[in-house]
Design goal:
Elements: E1 14-19, H1 24-39, E2 47-53, H2 59-69, H3 81-88, E3 91-95, H4 104-110, E4 116-121, H5 128-137, E5 146-149, H6 157-168, E6 176-178, H7 186-196, E7 210-218, H8 227-252, H9 261-274, H10 280-286, E8 287-293, E9 295-297, E10 300-302, E11 320-326, E12 336-342, E13 349-356, E14 374-380, E15 384-392, E16 400-408, H11 409-412, H12 420-430, H13 439-459, E17 464-467, H14 474-481
Parallel strand pairs: 1-2, 1-4, 2-3, 4-5, 5-6, 7-12, 8-17
Antiparallel strand pairs: 7-13, 8-11, 9-10, 11-12, 13-14, 14-15, 15-16
6-O-phosphono-beta-D-glucopyranose (BG6) binds near residues 219 and 238.
EC number: 1.1.1.49
Pfam families: G6PD_C, G6PD_N
Family: Belongs to the glucose-6-phosphate dehydrogenase family.
């Protein structure tokens, strides 16, 4: 699939129109990100932000909502009273019941004819079709308009296709920005530089020099107030289908011919299409689902998933997934990719661990150990890259111990790091599609994930319990131990 060159930055005034403007995502992420973009002069001079909501609010009531629900999420060091007031001055509020076509006339009245319109759909995906139909019906979609789609983009392949098809009737692919906020993270973008800006790893970045790859996205938070959504979704749909597979793509892709959006996305698509579909036996053997029970995280007692508000007492939703994936291509033949994510784990920690192959033959005696050279790319909370080497322990004899070459990116670059949403919003405004998922990528990710979800259903696979504050069920360690490997914290 190709996407024609996007219409880049526009010299038109910007109307940013946010559906779900009074929702949780807007309050916590989008509005603070827009404030930061405004503070740093990254919004076009003549920007208006039109928040759309169902509530019968005046503009002033919406601004009070922002004061109460968004301002606390702005980094306090960046809060400047004057800048905040100027930011508020950009806003309008329009009440729309998204299903009521007549309501859109209010948006038509508020939007400027000559503006570059960005529609941010921060609503439930079931509403995307209706919103797009109504936007077209009232003449607001033109060749300059862009639409931003928030995840979850479907709950299976069919629903993802349906969303893509209906949005695609109104917007050509080059005007569609599918957000995966992990692609906006500084460190995730830096992964591309590590791989494609440094010659040193290139020749080693393949089988047989790499023995295995681990990708962990560990969270300490529980489900919080999102049980209504999360219980229908689970960690596989919420995290693996998008964030973890996107990380896997960046680790595993071939060098793109350029940084053009399609050049990059073509390579990611090839990785997704090379993921070996799992058989039922592999689903049973190579995947682990978990659900947290009461425990303690960072010394604080926390409830189990089933005791959280609005979680059904017999819920089977998984809050943890570990799995072993295999990429069927020349570069990665027989290199297992271990993916793991979960809530209520001991630490907030996202990292990629590349385990290099063992020496073909060692003349230096070493004790039993599970790894040799290992590259650890920490994405969050710290940004660092460590290369674990083996060195001689001082003293008599030749005893080898692992030591780290350590690159602390926070120390190396002390400048401000924009949050993922800020960076991605600026990309949308400037018409840069590279860090957004293309339609075929999204569908390829679902095509691999869906049979696993179906397999779990067929196997009647209830999630295994794990105590909050641990790294998931024991079966997750066993998944690697079986191959004489270990997750980074166990090695
Ligand atoms: C979201 C998921 O996409 O990512 C959440 O819906 C998860 O469940 C969040 O907590 C994690 O993002 P981050 O940026 O905090 O790692």
């Amino acid at each position: 699939m190709t996407t024609q060159a996007p219409s880049a930055a526009s010299d038109r005034p910007l109307d940013m129109i946010i559906f779900g403007g009074a929702g949780d995502l807007s309050a916590r992420k989008l509005l603070p990100a827009l404030y930061m973009a405004h503070l740093h002069g990254n919004l076009p001079a003549d920007t208006r932000i039109i928040a759309i909501g169902r509530r019968d609010w005046t503009r002033e009531q919406y601004l009070s909502f922002m004061e109460e629900h968004s301002r606390p999420f702005v980094d306090s060091k960046a809060l400047d009273a004057l800048a905040w007031d100027r930011f508020l001055a950009l806003f309008d509020y329009v009440r729309i019941d998204v299903g009521a076509q007549g309501d859109y006339s209010r948006l038509c009245a508020a939007a400027r004819r000559s503006a570059q319109r960005v529609f941010y759909l921060a609503t439930s995906p079931e509403l995307f079709t209706t919103i797009c139909d109504n936007l077209t019906a009232c003449g607001l979609v033109d060749e300059h308009a862009r639409v931003v789609l928030e995840k979850p983009l479907g709950h299976d392949l069919e629903s993802a296709r349906a969303i893509n098809a209906s949005v695609g009737q109104h917007f050509p692919e080059q005007q569609i920005y599918r957000i995966d906020h992990y692609l906006g993270k500084e460190t995730v973008q830096n992964l591309m530089v590590l791989r494609f800006g440094n010659a040193i790893f290139g020749p080693l970045w393949q089988a047989p020099y790499i023995k295995s790859v681990q990708i962990t996205v560990a969270e300490t938070v529980g489900v919080g107030s999102r049980a209504g959504f999360y219980d229908q979704t689970g960690a596989m749909r919420d995290m693996v289908q998008n964030h973890l597979l996107q990380l896997l793509c960046i680790v595993a892709m071939e060098p793109p011919v350029s940084l053009d959006p399609d050049a990059v996305r073509d390579e990611k698509l090839k990785v997704l299409r090379s993921l070996r579909p799992m058989t039922m036996a592999e689903i049973a053997r190579d995947t682990v689902r978990g659900q947290y029970t009461a425990g303690a995280v960072a010394g604080e007692p926390v409830k189990g998933y089933l005791e959280e508000d609005n979680v059904p007492a017999d819920s089977h939703a998984e809050t943890f997934v570990a799995l072993r994936a295999q990429i069927n291509n020349w570069r990665w033949a027989n290199v297992p990719f271990f993916l793991r994510t979960g809530k209520r784990l001991p630490k907030r920690r996202s990292e990629i661990v590349i385990d290099f192959a063992d020496l073909p033959f060692s003349i230096i005696p070493s004790g039993p150990r599970k790894y040799g050279n290992r590259l650890v790319i920490q994405l969050q909370p710290e940004e660092s890259i460590q290369l674990q080497m083996l060195a001689k322990e001082p003293g008599s004899g030749l005893h080898m111990l692992p030591v780290n070459l350590n690159l602390d990116l926070q120390q190396a670059f002390t400048g401000r790091r924009a949050e993922a949403y800020e960076r991605l919003l600026i990309d949308v405004i400037r018409g840069r599609l590279t860090h957004f998922m293309r339609r075929d990528e999204l569908e390829a990710a679902w095509a691999w994930v869906e049979p696993i979800l179906n397999g779990w259903k067929e196997l009647g696979d209830r999630p295994r319990s794990y105590t909050a504050g641990t790294y998931g069920p024991a079966a997750s360690s066993a998944l690697m131990a079986r191959e004489n490997m270990a997750w980074a914290e166990e090695a």
